[in-house]
Amino acid sequence: MCAIPCWQMMRAKDKKYCIRLEMVTFARTHGVRPAMVRFACARNTVRSWVKRFEEGGPSNLHDRSRAPKSCPHKTSPQEERKVLEARRQIPPFGPRRLRDLCGCKPSPIAIARILRENGLTKKPRRKHRRKNDLRAIKAQCRAFERLQADTKRLYDIAC
């Protein structure tokens, strides 16, 4: 009945939940092996979705976040407060000076990130560049004053 394999259906982001729910209900009524054959996927895939469904119900069939749960090398809140305090005391200092002169531990890149996240940096002003107005330049030239000729060498044609 199902002509498209499971892995192709999973790529279609709009129907993932419906396909998973259909797979789970089919597996619970007919068994894991028939669901595996019908949806053209691995046995462990069917089992993992059935297990998730039994643990948390239908809402557990949605995609989970793939973001890491922790970041062990992240700057501690105490260090961030120390960097922000040093910057508020001496506003013109940048990340390198804050690290060298104020005794902040994080790297200059981490200090720059902390300052940027807390709005203590400003973007450099972009200079406005005026574009050339070609109409004014062309109006200064008289007719046929500037000519351009494209030439092409025809070496490949035999005479």
Descriptive overview:
Among the domains are: 6-61; 77-117. It has helices at 6-11, 16-30, 32-39, 43-56, 77-89, 95-102, 108-117, 134-140. With 159 residues, the protein is mainly alpha-helical. The protein is built from eight helices and no strands.
The structure class reads mainly alpha
Low-confidence stretches: none
Strands, total number: 0
User: Residue share in helices?
Assistant: 40-55%
Largest sheet report:
none
What does the average pLDDT come to? 84
Q: Can you tell me the overall shape?
A: flat
SSE arrangement, N to C: HHHHHHHH
Gyration radius, to the nearest Å? 33 Å
Residue share in β-strands = under 5%
Count of DSSP helices? 8
How far apart the termini lie comes to: 69 Å
